[in-house]
Amino acid sequence: MRKLLRILFFILIIVVLNTGCSNQLDLKSKIESLENENADLRSKLEQVDSLSMAYQDYKDKQRFVAKESLIHALPIQNYKIIRPIAANTVIQVLDAAQCQDQRLWLHVSVPVYDSPINYKGWIPESETVRLTENNIKLVQGDLFIKEGTPIYEVDQYNQIESTVSTKISHDVRGRIEKRQDSYVYFMSPGGWYFWVQEKYLIFPVLE
Length: 207
What we know:
Elements: H1 2-49, E1 54-55, E2 62-65, E3 69-72, E4 81-85, E5 89-98, E6 104-109, E7 120-124, E8 143-145, E9 150-151, E10 166-167, E11 172-180, E12 183-188, E13 192-197
Antiparallel strand pairs: 1-5, 2-5, 3-4, 5-6, 6-7, 8-11, 9-10, 11-12, 12-13
């Protein structure tokens, strides 16, 4: 019995020691993580403190974002992200500036369909292209539909044939969620979704 108790005692000591070592390793890892986070924050603060923007005239008043991108609170890479920009979106250019990273940044307004907050920010010009006749039909947002256009308020495309269309009572802006045959599934502010023939869509006007 005493031998068994000794064995159990030694096992308990080993468990306690291992737990202590594990806790020390976890604590060391957390400290290192906090130190790295602190260094990253200091670096970002230094970039903000030294931020220099040479504003310049910019010809384009709108640009096309072909791939999903992000807008930043300041023209600093990896700084605070305000919101994503969906692919195939037309954005409005408010200003342009050359920054200390030697890149040209655009201050832009992006279309939003929920709460109208944080919809203005900075994006590198290199992540945008000019809106042209070649890419305008790729645009998914921001698009418009005029009052009186027939729409189908159903979820699935195959439900259109068995549904009576209704006419919208006011002009509507929104974004194409998907295309099928000659129709598009349209998302508008307030979470309003419907199907409409693509021929009724009003695309941005080329400059």
